[in-house]
Structures are given as structure tokens and as C-alpha cells.
Write a structure and sequence with these properties.
Rossmann fold; alpha/beta; binds S-adenosylmethionine; about 35% helix; about 325 residues; 2 domains
Length: about 325
């Protein structure tokens, strides 16, 4: 009797097969954590490689390095690299001052190949939606809306308000359904919906008038995605340029969400440092909430960014189990 063919079930943590995303799949919390963590690591690696390669080729940046992609070294490495099935077997890339340009290009190709084989940024976004948000009780903007509905903000919500959501995964979250905002601009590096503009906030053109600015900016779990401490600082400074002037008590606020370990377990950063930086940028905390895995802040902006501020990366807390999250500022 002919043997019945048993179809092998596809076991892919990222729900991809041969580099193609297979569609929405429910992920276990540990899987979402693995995906998110790996993406953060390789994004950071990628950033430091591009920074090193930029010294020899100033025309390249993190989003545009076609000259490198077209090289034989890159293409061979990209094509031949196969990701391991287990996340625990993922390569830990060694990037230091002894790495040659050729080695850096090879690692870059392996990182890009890994990202593609794991389903691209979409996989990370899907893990973020399923993992972090569900675990903290749904969508993070719930907290924002809860705070905006308190008496503290009552008088500020009487005008037509607009909001900018940086790193938006869904146009149906509570920021949108609350009806507090007359208009919402949603942006993301990788838009997953026609109502979300595909745009890098760091490249967005600067507002030229008050009309182009926003009453509220939401930056939820985005800063930690930004691959360097300097860029995170730049993002915070940039945010101030998009906020409306708080004159006549009008709403001019920032909703910030970070994974809790960024302020609880970093060697270089903590909540006091964040508040110090925010204070120099003109922000005053109005609400703060610490959940199990994430921390939420609502800041009001007073419109005044201090000149000549510098916050360098320096050790605040020692300990081998700490992470390296940091935000540095150079506004000189
Ligand atoms: C972890 S998700 C967070 C999504 C959502 N805001 C939340 O709180 O669940 C981070 C998102 O930020 C986006 N992102 C990161 N840097 C960005 C930038 N410079 N401009 C626009 N979007 C960015 C990423 O593409 C990703 O979709």
C-alpha cells in the first residue's frame, strides 16, 4: 500500500516561509518578545555599521545605501545567508573598530537578509501589536485618553484639536475613536493601512506655520526603536518643532510610552534623567503610570527649549544585568 503523504506543518516563529509573510498568526508572548528583541538588536547593529561605513562614503545613510547594496560582496552574502530556525541560534554580530569595511558590508547584508527572511518590518509590527499591546491591556492610547478626560484637561479640549501619531500601527485605536481630535495625522516607517502615511518622522518636512503643527503628539514605543541614543535625543528635539504654541492655554502635549526597562534597568538612563532632559526641552510631566512592562507619560509643553543643552551618555547605575538604553542630547 502506498504510504500516505503527511503534509509537514510550517513551524516558523515569524510566520514566514521562504521570506514571504504568510498572514496574521497568533504568537505566544515569548515569541513576540524574541521577535521584538531581535529586531531591536539588529536595527542597532545596522545603524552602527552604516555610521562606520559613512566615514568612507558620506553619501549613504540608514535608509539609502544602494551603492553598497549593488556591490558583489553585499549581494553574495545576502543571497547565501540562511537564518537559523531557532532564535537562540541567531548570530551575535561583532562590530568594533577592528572590523574592516568588507566585514561590515557582509554583516549588513546578513542583517538585511535576516530581516527579509523574517518577513520585514511587518513582522516586527505584528509582534508589537500582538505582544506588547495585548499584554498591557490593549492599546496604549487608552491611557492617554483616560488622562485627557480628567478635569486637568477639560478646558483644553474645547477647541478643534489635531494630533500626530508617530509609529502608528492602526487607524482604529482609541486616539481615533475617542473623537477628541478633529484630525489625526498617522505616520509609520512601514504603513499597514491606507490611513497611515508611510513616512520617517526624522525626514518629515518641518512645519512652516502654526497650522502645520499639532496639539498632541503621540510617541508610543517608538523612541526605543530608534537605533542610537543621539538619534533619540534628536527625535525629542524634533518633536518640539511640531507642537503648537501653548499660548492661551491651548493643548500642546506629548504622550510618551517606553518599555519599562528603559527607565528601570538601564546602565545609562532612568526616570530622573528623562525628566531632566524633558524639563530642558520645555516639558512638564502631568501624568505618569508604570505598568508591568511599559511606562507612560503625558507632558505639557511650555514652548521654551533651552539653548546649549548637552546630556551625554554616562553610567548612572552599575550592574552586569543592566541594559544600555540611553537618550543623549546635543542642542548646542
Ligand atoms: C513598537 S511599534 C509601536 C506601535 C504603537 N505606537 C504602539 O504603541 O503599540 C513601533 C513603530 O514605530 C515605527 N517607527 C519607528 N521609528 C519611526 C520613525 N522615525 N518614523 C515613523 N515611524 C517610526 C515603527 O515602524 C513601528 O511600527
Amino acid at each position: 500500500m502506498a504510504k500516505k503523504k503527511v503534509k509537514k506543518s510550517l513551524k516558523s516563529i515569524t510566520n514566514t516561509h521562504k521570506g514571504k509573510l504568510l498572514g496574521p498568526k497568533s504568537l505566544k508572548p515569548q515569541q513576540t518578545r524574541q521577535i521584538i528583541r531581535r529586531f531591536h538588536i539588529i536595527q542597532k547593529n545596522k545603524y552602527s555599521i552604516i555610521s562606520k561605513l559613512r566615514k568612507a562614503n558620506s553619501n549613504i545613510d540608514i535608509n539609502d545605501y544602494d551603492s553598497i547594496k549593488n556591490s558583489k560582496v553585499y549581494q553574495n552574502e545576502f543571497k547565501n545567508f540562511k537564518i537559523p530556525t531557532k532564535y537562540s541560534e541567531n548570530e551575535i554580530y561583532k562590530i568594533d573598530n577592528t572590523s574592516t569595511d568588507k566585514e561590515l558590508i557582509k554583516i549588513l547584508a546578513r542583517i538585511d537578509s535576516e530581516i527579509e527572511q523574517r518577513g520585514g518590518l511587518k513582522t516586527y509590527q505584528s509582534a508589537s501589536t500582538q505582544g506588547q499591546t495585548s499584554k498591557r491591556g490593549g492599546d496604549s492610547s487608552k491611557k492617554l485618553i483616560e488622562w485627557l478626560k480628567t478635569s486637568k484637561y477639560e478646558t483644553k479640549l474645547t477647541q478643534d484639536l489635531n494630533a500626530l501619531e508617530i509609529g502608528c500601527l492602526s487607524p482604529h485605536n482609541i486616539i481615533s475613536t475617542s473623537k477628541i481630535f478633529k484630525s489625526i495625522t498617522r505616520i509609520d516607517l512601514n504603513s499597514q493601512d491606507p490611513f497611515i502615511l508611510q513616512q520617517d518622522f526624522m525626514e518629515r518636512s518641518l512645519p512652516t506655520s502654526e497650522e502645520e503643527k499639532f496639539n498632541l503628539i503621540s510617541c508610543s514605543l517608538v523612541l526605543n526603536f530608534v537605533p542610537s541614543h543621539e538619534k533619540r535625543g534628536e527625535m525629542l528635539i524634533r518633536i518640539t518643532k511640531y507642537l503648537k504654541s501653548p499660548k492661551n492655554g491651548q493643548l500642546s502635549s506629548l504622550f510618551l510610552v517606553l518599555p519599562l526597562p528603559c527607565v528601570k534597568n538601564s546602565r545609562y538612563f532612568d526616570n530622573d534623567k528623562l525628566l531632566e532632559i524633558m524639563g530642558k526641552l520645555g516639558f512638564k510631566q502631568t501624568f505618569f503610570y508604570e505598568a508591568n512592562k511599559v511606562a507612560y507619560w503625558l507632558f505639557d509643553w511650555n514652548g521654551k527649549v533651552s539653548k546649549n543643552i548637552t546630556f551625554n551618555k554616562k553610567e548612572l547605575h552599575s550592574g552586569s544585568t543592566r541594559n544600555n538604553f540611553c537618550i543623549s542630547i546635543d542642542n548646542t
